[in-house]
């Protein structure tokens, strides 16, 4: 849904609002991945004034979402093998370290609700594999699971880096179609990590996370 600057809280920095508006346009497919557009085009599409938009574009370029070509235009990143591999390499560095901390320190009150949520989704998937709400629920669990793992590091710099990484992951997934089989595989990989973390098996949790991320990488590479 298009959300221009005028619809956002006045206390919010306009450049921050423009940043989100550009990403929203990309994820809503009002701007195609890999597209080459002008600053004026983006201003019309997002409803953002040129000044805040210009500031937002500089941040988006630093985040790897687009490239600014002076006197020419703006090119959005296109999902591809190089972007996918480099994103998952960085993700692996962060999450394999984080899951050891998670397995060592996360309380059962933190782990058990995430396990139960996965079990409920798998139960529903088995009984209604084409239910329309399953992809959205799976995306919520994806955020819950990986967010809990990264959050266990309690490091604001890593949190910020992971938010940028999550944006690139959403771009990589733009053209990915879900299937009941892929969804089930992903949820069971999550459960493997969670159950090893619950048992305080640090090496096992790290190995399960490595297998999960390698599996996810291969699933994405197959559709490129």
TrEMBL record:
Pfam families listed in its UniProt record: FCD
Residue intervals of the GntR C-terminal domain: 86-215
Keywords recorded for this protein, A-Z: DNA-binding, Transcription, Transcription regulation
Entry's Gene Ontology molecular function annotations: DNA binding
InterPro entries: GntR_C, TF_FadR/GntR_C, WH-like_DNA-bd_sf, WH_DNA-bd_sf
Signal peptide (UniProt feature, chain positions): none
Protein known as: Transcriptional regulator
Protein's organism: Rubellimicrobium mesophilum DSM 19309
